[in-house]
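Quick one: structure tokens for this chain, please?
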Amino acid sequence: TLAMSADGIGFILLRPDCDGDCDVTLAWTGPPDLKLCAFISGLALGVAVVLLIVNPSSSPWAKHL
């Protein structure tokens, strides 16, 4: 187990309890709601694509086509 704290500018400060070279492995798992937010974003993108396919004249680029 490593002692961890924040430094003055918000970085993680690790204090390993070893002499000489140490191997430290960090794993970022993301926030707990990451998969839910990714799903909602994908769903919103899919709905937007379907709406543009169903009614292409509603596209903001329809005037330029």
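The helical segments are 34-54.
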